Amino acid sequence: MIDVNLESIRIFLHILGASVWVGGQLLMASLVPxxxxxxxxxxxxxxxxFGRIAWxxxxxxxxxxxxxxxxxxxxxxxxGYNAALGIKLLLVAASGGAAAIHSNAGSxxxxxxTGAFALLGGLTAMYVGVLLIA
Length: 134
Fold this sequence. Notes:
mainly alpha; 4 helices; about 85% helix
């Protein structure tokens, strides 16, 4: 029988936040070349609109991630689990930090590098998250 409970809602919200954050970055990366052909300003305007959606979902992922940690019984998890969790937290911070720099960068080179780091950090954090529950 399917049991809808607070745990399933918490996990769903965490996956939703991470999916919008990372999936949106993948979508934006795929749209930038097309948007550049429409207008030089189009990628920046699309990115600003994406940010209005992406940042709240990043916040949702962070808040539910903290909630997830509070639900752990840290006395029963291995040191490997703790290490992986620490790595995931660093990757999430790196993804958010790189995205924040990306959003405010004036240089196209800086935007490209930080955008790539934001996406790579988010993707890797998602994978480590899968390792934590597998």
